[in-house]
Amino acid sequence: MGSIRMDGDDQRTELVAAPQWRHWTKNFWLGVLNGILFKVGITFTHPSTVLAVFLTKLTGSEIFAGLLTAVAGIGWFLPPMFVAGYVEGLRRKLPLYAHMAFWRAIGWLLMMACVVYLAPRSPIAAAICFLASYGLFTVSGGIGSLAFMDIFARTVPFRRRGIYWGARMFLGSVLGIAAGGLITVVLKGNRLLAFPYDYAFLMGCSFLCFAIAWLTFISIDEPEPLWTPRPRGVREQLEAMRELWSQRPDFRQLIFVRLLLDIGLIALPFYSTFAIQTLGAPPFLLGTFVIAETIGALIANVLWSFLADAKSNLFVLKLSIKLALLPSGWALLVAVAAPFFGSAVAVLFCVTYFFLAFSGTGIAISFTNYVLELAEDAHRPTYLALSSASESGMMLLPVLGGLLLQFAPHTVLFAIAFVGALFSVLTSRRLTPAFATF
């Protein structure tokens, strides 16, 4: 039987040309195209920049920006905990992905309806309905992510996973620069696209990208799994997760590191509102922030995807966590400089978004891949669900951040984020190579 050699580190593996990998090249590129489209779609309406400023402008309160991040995180991370046992028992995961894509589409269309029909008449009601619809979008996405990741693990060979994520993000970032330019033009304001219709237009651009992305991934040839465990109910699933937590100290350590890193969420939606409200940056500068973030992701993807395959995902994860000190650190420096240089420092705030993307891209590429390396094949959804569920409580931190801003300046949030990243760096030293555990 023929084989394809793939080298990396000091380790040589062979991809056997078994039926599972018969269509891996086609599936690889369909997955890459799916990621490119999603990256561009998210760029048009980035939650921590575009949507956060939209809700703040709509309601006059930064609390809603914090609620947006909380809804996004809890909706994405918590539901998989309750359905992972059911998902593991499905021989084919693609129908579940397609079903969840349908509900994500419904959620996004409802969000657009809130902006177009409710926002001009009742801003607070529009914000509440917008968050509820966004909840439907993220909950469906969180459940669908279990199917997505299981299909990914069965269609993309191990030594191609770094370049897979890298190609998705790199090519998406190239197009994202153009999206950032369009954001700048749209948010400069004109009679045809006055607030809130300018944001509705950007959401329409996102939806078009999302819809094509869903259809692209549904076109993948999903291989049959080697074997499928029986479905588990919620109670049995929770017990399985408890056992996994108690039996895998290496996995626990990884989650602990990620939780410390997640402390930075307390500041995430407020970098953009700080620039607009405190530094005096004009709203159209959001497009520049998006471009800076996109360039950061563009450069990072070339570096991180290469290092993930050439070195290891753990190497990339540890280095990216160290670089996670930079966004909050730079924001603090700009805040200190603002009283001396005035609103001119708002342009320098673009560097914050460059650093956010540069470190965040490395973490995004390496963290999930490292979880998959730790996981037994048949129980990937359980590992992913436990990883997600453990982070769900941290998603309330942006709400706490919004409340703190009623009594304290933005610099307090930036300092908390910096300390969380610092402790994450220190604890990440205890992480060990995944394959040493078997």
SSE arrangement:
Layout: E1 3-8, E2 11-16, H1 24-44, H2 47-59, H3 63-77, H4 80-88, H5 94-118, H6 123-155, H7 161-187, H8 197-218, H9 234-247, H10 249-262, H11 270-277, H12 285-310, H13 313-323, H14 325-341, H15 350-374, H16 380-392, H17 397-404, H18 410-428
Antiparallel strand pairs: 1-2
Task: Characterize the structure shown.
The chain has helices spanning 24-44, 47-59, 63-77, 80-88, 94-118, 123-155, 161-187, 197-218, 234-247, 249-262, 270-277, 285-310, 313-323, 325-341, 350-374, 380-392, 397-404, 410-428, and strands at residues 3-8, 11-16. The longest helix is centred in the N-terminal third of the chain and has 33 residues, at 123-155. The chain is built from 18 helices and two strands. Helix 7 (161-187) packs antiparallel against helix 15 (350-374). It has a single domain (23-221, 230-437), classed as MFS general substrate transporter like domains (Growth Hormone, Chain: A), CATH 1.20.1250. Strand 1 (3-8) and strand 2 (11-16) form a beta hairpin. Strands 1-2 form a two-stranded antiparallel sheet. The chain is mainly alpha-helical and 438 residues long.
